[in-house]
Amino acid sequence: MIWTNYHGHCKYCDGNFAPEEYAKRAIDKDFLAYGFSSHSPLPFDNAWSMKEDSIQNYLQEIELLKGRYHTKIEIYTGLEADYIEGLSSPSKLKSKYNLDYVIGSVHYAGVYPDGTRWEIDGDTRGFQTGLRTIYGNNIKKCISTYYRLIRDMIEMHTPDIVGHLDKIKIHNIDNVYFSEFDRWYQNEVISTLKSIKANGCILEVNTRGIYTRKNWQTYPSRWILEKAYELKIPVTLTSDAHHPEEINMAFERSAAMLNDVGYRRMTILWQGKWQNVPFDQKGLKIDVSNKDTKLAS
Ligand SMILES: [Zn+2]
Ligand SMILES: [Zn+2]
Predict the structure, then answer these.
(1) Engineering a disulfide at 103: which of 29, 35, 135, 161 sits with its beta carbon 3.0 to 4.6 angstroms away?
(2) What fold, for 4-295?
(3) Per-domain residue ranges for the chain?
(4) Which CA distances in Å does 279 have to 3, 234, 252, 256, 259?
(5) What pLDDT is stored for residue 175 in this prediction?
(6) Among all ligands shown, which has an atom nearest to the Cα of 13?
(7) Would you state the pLDDT for residue 297?
(8) How far apart are CA 258 and CA 280, in angstroms?
(9) For residue 24, how far is its CA from the centre of ligand 2 (angstroms)?
(10) What is the mean pLDDT of residues 194-212?
């Protein structure tokens, strides 16, 4: 089965292994292309971002892999760039480090009175504390801020790919905080989709919640993908891999779901440009002889 994946972490951030281990696994699995997207460095400490002084080694190591394996796979250099108002901009990081692409993600959606940033996808207790302290337990205000930040990112710091659009649902198990069918929630999501469309971004369909058993659906949920399909928003399937085993986890069922929604093509970075390629649950429908012609040199 031929796949691609542009959302992958490694030892430079919170992944488990050297970049080469992911590249080798991608070759074993007949991937057409693999993109590295470590968490971008931030001007404060956290448990998962790359350290600022590691980034040159990260870039060099991936550059070496591009050359070492160029007859077998296309390797791309990216970052999962945080958007934090005034502190971290996906588009600026892309040009600063001359990246092939950037995934823009919002992981922080508030600030505690002492200046500490609040992570929306940390542990449950941290989520509850932030919701209470920063938003007075007003979930609507919290979620609206989250989606407003994503729209600000898309409109002013435009990334190539919008990362895990509805990740804030991670703590909403059994709809404890809200229902995705609430009108106000759907309005926030739909206006964010319109912003994605207007700014020419690709929406990622991220399988990590499924195989880590945190969610039964992709990020974003199926109903959001149905709206995205109506709006003709391009999608790309990613796994947000942290371990080499995870590079195509839950891809088959998620590709089947996307076909069921109506999507027949996904957008991949191949031969140096974003292209719309047909797919089904068995992978990308690309003529392998063509692939070999291109990749053999
Ligand atoms: Zn993320
Ligand atoms: Zn990630």
Answers:
(1) 161
(2) TIM Barrel (3.20.20)
(3) 4-295
(4) 9, 13, 10, 9, 8
(5) 95
(6) 2
(7) 34
(8) 8
(9) 20
(10) 98
